[in-house]
Design a protein that fits this description.
The protein has 160 residues and is of the alpha+beta class. The chain is built from 4 helices and 6 strands, in the order ααβββββαβα. The chain has a 4-stranded mixed sheet with strand order 1-4-5-6, with helices on both faces. A two-stranded antiparallel ribbon has the order 2-3. A hairpin with a 4-residue loop joins strand 4 and strand 5. The longest helix has 24 residues. The two termini are 35 Å apart. It binds zinc ion. Zinc ion (ZN) binds next to loops.
């Protein structure tokens, strides 16, 4: 659904509005994440979402987790996780944002390392990636070499 950020509107400084928006998108079901879950689900994959794991002293919460195959998927916001395409350093409020973003990146690296040490495969998807490409990346890890089933042409009841 293409619902915008409805509800209250009151004037906020531009940066604050942007930050609020991104904060709102961050934890719960950012859109690319929802789409990816839906697609994977429609392809027959079952997974947990926002599954919290304690790995040693590192706590991680991947967006999509395949526990049996030990595959953890993160859908990373371009701004928060500093994607190479859109994650340019913020020029305003740098005193605040830059250390925060750096911490995010470091936390991501720690999470990846902890997961890898525990035998997990980590898939990181940028939120700007197209759904097909994102789906293909995950499927490739789950079922190497199988490739994506023809797009959404899953027979409703093909029992042969
Ligand atoms: Zn990006």
């Amino acid at each position: 659904m293409g619902s915008g950020p409805g509800g209250k509107r009151h004037p906020v400084p531009l940066d604050e509005g942007r930050a609020r928006n991104m904060r709102a998108n961050r934890r719960v079901d950012s859109k690319p994440e929802v789409q990816l879950r839906k697609r994977l689900h429609s392809l027959g994959f079952r997974f947990r979402k926002d599954y919290r794991m304690d790995l040693g002293d590192t706590r991680v919460r991947p967006d999509i987790v395949f526990t049996a195959k030990k595959v953890a998927v993160f859908v990373d916001g371009c701004f928060w996780h500093v994607c190479p395409v859109h994650g340019r350093e913020p020029t305003r409020n740098e005193w605040y944002w830059t250390p925060k973003l750096r911490r995010n990146v470091e936390r991501d690296q720690l999470a990846d390392q902890a997961l890898a040490d525990a035998g997990w495969t980590v898939v990181r998807i940028w939120e700007h990636e197209l759904l097909d490409a994102a789906t293909a990346a995950v499927v490739e890890v789950l079922s190497p070499g199988v490739g994506l089933p023809a797009r959404v042409s899953i027979p409703k009841s093909a029992s042969t």
